[in-house]
Design a protein that fits this description.
Blueprint lengths: L2 E6 L6 H6 L3 E3 L2 E4 L2 E4 L6 H7 L8 E3 L3 H13 L4 E5 L8 H10 L5 E5 L6 H15 L4 H13 L1 E6 L4 H5 L5 H10 L2 E7 L2 E7 L2 H14 L3 E8 L3 H11 L11 E3 L2 H7 L4 E7 L2
Parallel strand pairs: 1-2, 1-6, 6-7, 11-12
Antiparallel strand pairs: 3-4, 3-5, 8-9, 8-13, 9-10, 11-13
Helix pairs in contact: 3-4, 5-6
Length: 279
């Protein structure tokens, strides 16, 4: 029995982890007025974030086609996979998961189970990594899926954004709310768990960072943690330093730049954590 793991480019896992565990990554699309680009393949993250504030027409994003997923599944079948688990960004945020479901249902001669972790970025990525480790260890499909459901309920992604502008431009919040936020210099703080997104606000950047640290502390003991940012690696490293007293694992945690598929909606300058609560 060979179980292989499939995900999409929003998972934000380091390349060495993807390679080590043989994870298949299906890229989403970033759409500009001059054409569409495969996320992580045809446009770099640095290039995207450097240009993002200057785009007159906001970039949009789109899911891979059903055929793209089907070809990825078929390739794994041809290479000897007997079962596949396909894990993707929350269906409450993107259509990617639903496309994967349709592709999985159309497959013949192989079992493809789709899993919605209800999260984004490394909130999905850490669950993908856990699935790949369990598959490599010889766990059964049923054992892996049970563990993934447990992990998903305990996984939280929370980040402080630099501005409301990009959420408004992408249609994620109303122009009225964005206008009030800019007037008051509000710094939005987003939190996601189990498919639910909540937005709170801090009056200053320092207040937003304090909010992140208080949220991390409120989770109690942590099983796993990572840092995420949008073109703000120095701010992420400062956040790592500030969190060391309450979470020893942060010293060795990933710090990953968030995919443009998500970054186009939240803008540059965001920093945050992905944390899995201990049981």
């Amino acid at each position: 029995m060979t179980i292989k793991i499939v995900t999409d480019s929003t998972c934000d896992l380091p390349g060495e982890i993807i390679e080590k565990y043989g994870i298949t990554v299906v890229p989403a699309y970033i759409n500009f007025t001059d054409g569409s680009y495969l996320d992580g393949i045809e446009i770099s993250r640095k290039e995207f974030y450097d240009k993002l504030p200057n785009y007159q027409t906001p970039p949009t994003t789109s899911a891979p086609a059903i055929g793209t997923f089907a070809r990825a599944y078929k390739k794994l079948l041809d290479e000897g996979a007997t079962k596949i688990i396909s894990i993707h960004i929350s269906s409450t945020l993107s259509g990617i998961y639903n496309v994967a479901v349709l592709a999985a249902e159309a497959m013949e001669n192989i079992v493809v189970k789709t899993f919605d972790p209800g999260n984004l970025s490394l909130g999905t990525g850490l669950i993908v990594e856990a699935a790949a480790k369990m598959a490599e260890a010889g766990k059964s499909l049923e054992e892996i899926l049970v563990k993934l459901k447990d992990l998903a309920q305990r996984t939280y992604t929370f980040a402080a954004l630099d501005t409301l502008k990009f959420l408004q431009r992408s249609g994620r919040i109303s122009r009225l709310k964005a206008g009030f936020g800019s007037l008051l210099q509000v710094k939005p703080v987003l939190k996601m768990n189990a498919g639910q997104v909540a937005m709170e606000a801090a009056r200053t950047s320092n207040g937003a960072i304090k909010h992140l640290l208080e949220t991390l502390k409120s989770l109690g003991p942590i099983e796993s943690i990572a840092l995420v940012h949008t073109n703000a690696s120095e701010r992420a490293e400062l956040l790592r330093t500030q969190a060391k007293e309450m979470c020893a694992q942060i010293s060795e945690a990933y710090s990953m730049e968030v995919t443009p598929v998500i970054g186009s909606h939240i803008g540059p300058g965001a920093v945050g954590f992905v944390a899995i609560k201990a049981t």
